[in-house]
Design a protein that fits this description.
97 residues, four-stranded mixed β-sheet, two-stranded antiparallel sheet
Amino acid sequence: MIGVYVQPDDFDPGNEIAALHAGRSDIGAVASFVGLVRVDGALDSLTLDHYPAMTTRALLAIAAEAGDRWPLQGGTIIHRHGRLLPGERIVLVAVAS
């Protein structure tokens, strides 16, 4: 199962990845992607707005498609919203197989 979280708060990629395989012997790999706000001299912040139900529904559909296509043992998708500064994390996608 892939957990989906839409939140304003930052996350710790290391903690999220460790939680995917903690206490499990059936996982041989974890692949992850972390998206960041680009550091650009003209950018002082980025504001991400969203429609909660639509955002969550879209991410759940992506998670379901991934689960149908590949033999995943679990996963986590975190997408932040709100005001983000250059260098801050925006998104985490991590899957275990």
